[in-house]
Specification:
Distance between the termini: 45 Å
Strand content: 15-25%
Oligomer: single chain
CATH superfamily of the largest domain: Metallo-dependent phosphatases
Number of strands: 17
CATH topology of the largest domain: Purple Acid Phosphatase, chain A, domain 2
Radius of gyration: 25 Å
Structural class: alpha/beta
Largest sheet: 6 strands, mixed
Strand order of the largest sheet: 4-3-2-1-13-14
Helix content: 25-40%
Shape: globular
Order of helices and strands: EHEHEHEEEEEHHEEEEEEEHHEHEHHH
Number of domains: 3
């Protein structure tokens, strides 16, 4: 059997980042570029491992963007197979998500198994009920006709389960093992599993995800684990794949490789030989330029402007390749750090933006002030009272814990909440995107509520 599929995730259509319509369009442009690549590749299927949309409630234009991409795939005879991510799921009172709507419009196959007592039921996709745990590609359903004979490529899907992910995954592995002989009798020779979850430790601020060891019961039962959720590209053992987001959802992602995968499957190979070749492709996107300016020793606003002018002249030379890679104007993200020798309110942020625009033809300039005034300077190595910085941070967490413990709703988890508050403060001072900070808080609330 030979077949090709494209694996994408975290497209986040509808995100009007920074309130800019151009950024809204950028997320659609990135998604459509992946769609067009799948059509050009004559892919046999197009899989979306969650978070096609940025939020549960979308507007008409966002829906039209999704429909445009899915209609291009449909016109090319390429089935789109998706699962819901945490951003896609419907509000409880609504009961219907926009991905389900697209499924009813016959524009995609939305996999979502029935789960009984934590055990996913391995039922095939039912076109009438529009529900099922898996969808099969056969020689009759492929674009190229390269899936030959009675062989099948089977795509399983497990949507976002949050804190229940590990339990559902373990039970799913047990069901797969029990169904092995039946799969072989049905001619299944290659298995893809879509999941909207990440691996613990890939991004330090994201907690509560399964450890890589917890995926191991699936080894030998599926050939390709197609993940979403974390926006950073990573691979484990040429078996577990996460493509990353197709656009820059937060400035902290700008240094990460992200894109989509093209997987070419060949099961008619000698024993022990690779059954797939996977290529990670970085899709076109708007450049994101991120720099940090230390302000230590700056004694007045004029000196600050002069320092930025000198630094920006060097940065733009370093960034020439990034800027040349796209015809789109870049987003410039600047973080100010260090000890400021004058009051923070004395400098003109608009002047800083103007200096950067002299060097960059930017779509927007974002400036984050993480500086401290001299009266708050603790020194590089010691706190103001002689304690080293780690001790000072411990004191800060201790103060947070005492304040939180006064509220009986949070007393039981006061130490954990104190650590969360400390992390949020660190992220804010580092200039992380508000959306990323909010996501960290949402993740913590989910974990500590269970």
């Amino acid at each position: 059997m030979r077949a090709t599929f494209v694996h994408t995730a975290d497209n986040h259509l509808g995100y009007e980042q920074y309130g800019l319509k151009e950024r809204f369009n950028d997320f659609a442009r990135a998604f459509l570029a992946v769609v067009d690549a799948a059509v050009a590749q004559r892919a046999d299927c197009f899989i979306i491992a969650g978070d096609l949309f940025n939020k549960r409630a979308i507007d008409a234009l966002t829906l039209m963007q999704a429909q445009e991409g899915l209609q291009r795939l449909q016109a090319a005879g390429i089935p789109a197979i998706a699962i819901e991510g945490n951003h896609d799921r419907s509000y409880y009172r609504d009961g219907v998500s926009w991905l389900q709507f697209l499924c009813w419009q016959k524009l995609l196959i939305l996999l979502n198994p029935l789960v009984e007592d934590g055990v996913p039921q391995l039922t095939p996709w039912d076109a009438e009920a529009m529900r099922g745990a898996y969808y099969d590609l056969t020689s009759a359903s492929t674009v190229s006709g390269s899936a030959t004979g009675g062989e099948r490529l089977r795509v399983y899907g497990l949507p976002w389960y949050g804190t229940s992910t590990v339990r559902v995954m373990e039970n799913f592995a047990g069901e797969l093992a029990a169904a092995r002989e039946r799969e072989q009798a049905e001619g299944v020779t290659y298995r893809v599993l879509m999941m909207h979850t990440g691996v613990e430790g890939i991004v330090p601020q994201m907690h509560g995800l399964p450890a890589y060891e917890q995926f191991q019961p699936l080894r030998g039962l599926v050939d390709y684990v197609a993940l979403g959720h974390i926006h950073k590209q990573y691979v484990r053992d040429e078996w577990l794949y996460n493509p990353g987001s197709t656009e820059t959802w937060g400035a902290e992602e700008s240094a990460w490789e992200r894109g989509y995968y093209v997987a070419r499957v060949a099961t008619d190979v000698p024993a022990g030989a690779p059954r797939h070749i996977v290529e990670h492709v970085i899709n076109p996107r708007r450049p994101f330029i991120r720099h940090t300016l230390r302000v230590d020793g700056v004694v007045d606003p004029t000196a600050l402007y002069e320092r930025l002018d000198v630094k920006a002249a060097g940065w733009v030379r370093e960034d020439v390749d990034k800027l040349a890679a796209s015809p789109l104007e870049p987003v410039i993200d600047l973080s100010l750090t260090g000890v400021l020798g004058f009051d923070q309110g004395a400098y003109d942020k608009a002047r800083l933006e103007e200096i950067l625009r002299q060097y960059y033809d930017a779509l927007t300039v974002r400036i984050h002030d993480g500086t401290r005034d001299t009266e708050w300077d603790l020194g590089e190595e010691e706190g103001g009272d002689g304690r080293d910085r780690s001790t000072w941070q411990q004191l800060e967490v201790h103060i947070f814990q005492e304040l939180i413990a006064r509220d009986t709703r949070y007393t039981a988890h006061a130490p954990q909440w104190a650590k969360v508050l400390s992390d949020l403060k660190t992220m804010a001072l580092a200039g992380d995107e508000p959306a990323a900070i909010a996501q960290h808080l949402r993740t913590a609330r989910t974990e500590l509520a269970n």
